[in-house]
Amino acid sequence: MNKFRIFIATTTFFALALVLFGINHISNAKPASIVDKQFEIVDKQSEKIEPVLVKSEKLCGTDHDPVKIAEAEEDFKTRKANARTQAEVNGLEAASATSATGGVINVYFHVVYSGTKGNISDAMIADQMTILNQAFATWGYSFNRISTDRTNNTTWYNGCYGSAERKMKSALHQGTADDLNIYTCNPSNGILGYATFPSSYTRSPSLDGVVLLDQSLPGGTAAPYNEGDTGTHEVGHWMGLYHTFQGGCTGSGDYVSDTPFEASAAYGCPQGRDTCTTTGFDPIENFMDYTDNSCMFQFTGGQDERMDSQFTTYRLGK
Ligand SMILES: [Ca+2]
Ligand SMILES: [Ca+2]
Ligand SMILES: [Ca+2]
Ligand SMILES: [Zn+2]
After folding, report:
1. Scanning 95, 139, 143, 170, which has the fewest C-beta atoms within 10 Å of its C-beta?
2. 173: CA distance to ligand 1 center in Å?
3. Which residues surround ligand 4, an ion (CB under 5 A)?
């Protein structure tokens, strides 16, 4: 756990609240309520099977059902509150809560291929790791690939987004909640990749991780999505981020205050796009939109704050 930087925040208010209200419901954390059977809806919605990369197609298969998100956010709130309370119990006078602000995340890389298809080079994987590290460096996280395995399995290769997911991951997954498993394969259905959220870990530890279309890695054939930012985007989900267009123009949107609201996914690189009357142009340069890899280059401070908090709540030392 000491590989993660820890931020100590004083919470005097909670100390006071405890004195006033007592401390008898501290460890009542509800189980994570995200449903782990995530991918059926998307499969049904996919109209275009081929060609793979067409505009206004659903590029990312990560589950964003609004009901599940609302439940997950409730769970997140409860756990954060409980963590603060627990900090009080551990040292009433210290009155502190801890949060990771960054750290080294170990990566287990799994190449799933089918004969001559998908057995990508180690150089391509190394380039993907470089892209990931560049994207997250500002925000305190780095990714250390500690193993790479290769599996020749046509069923897994073509079924890694759907029927073969569970078998593939059960066989290959390694590590614990704060370790990242990345799989490359052919997710099909026009999907460049998908990820599991931090809050899903407890329910399905072996399904945790990121799945990427092999050709989305740097130098692959999936232009304009072949510069490695699908990897960045999916790891963003794995760190607890939603799409910038989540929820449209109203409500909590993506639960990040410094990313402007966006009515729908943006494609290409539509500078000046402004789909919500609320302040700010659409965040088309953000890694959590659907724009071309050459267009997206940033996370925000608000997203980092959410990643830190999600990582601490659901992954750190778990
Ligand atoms: Ca951070
Ligand atoms: Ca926002
Ligand atoms: Ca706007
Ligand atoms: Zn996504």
Report:
1. 170
2. 26
3. 60, 62
In a domain, residue 311? The reply is no
Q: How far is the CA of 216 from the centre of ligand 1 (A)?
A: 26
Domain housing 96: 4-70+78-241
216-220: long-range pairs with CB below 8 Å, 24+: 216/192, 217/120, 217/124, 217/125, 217/127, 217/128, 217/184, 218/124, 218/127, 218/128, 218/130, 218/131, 219/123, 219/124, 219/127, 220/120, 220/124
Residues 193-211 have pLDDT tens digits of 999 999 999 999 999 999 9
For the cut 70, the answer to whether the pLDDT of residue 311 exceeds it is: yes
Structural domains in the chain (count): 2
* 189, 109: one domain: yes
> Residue 33: pLDDT above 70?
no
Same domain for 237 and 252: no
Higher pLDDT, 64 or 183: 183
| Catalytic residue (one of 234, 262, 285, 305) | 234
Does residue 310 sit within a domain?
A: no
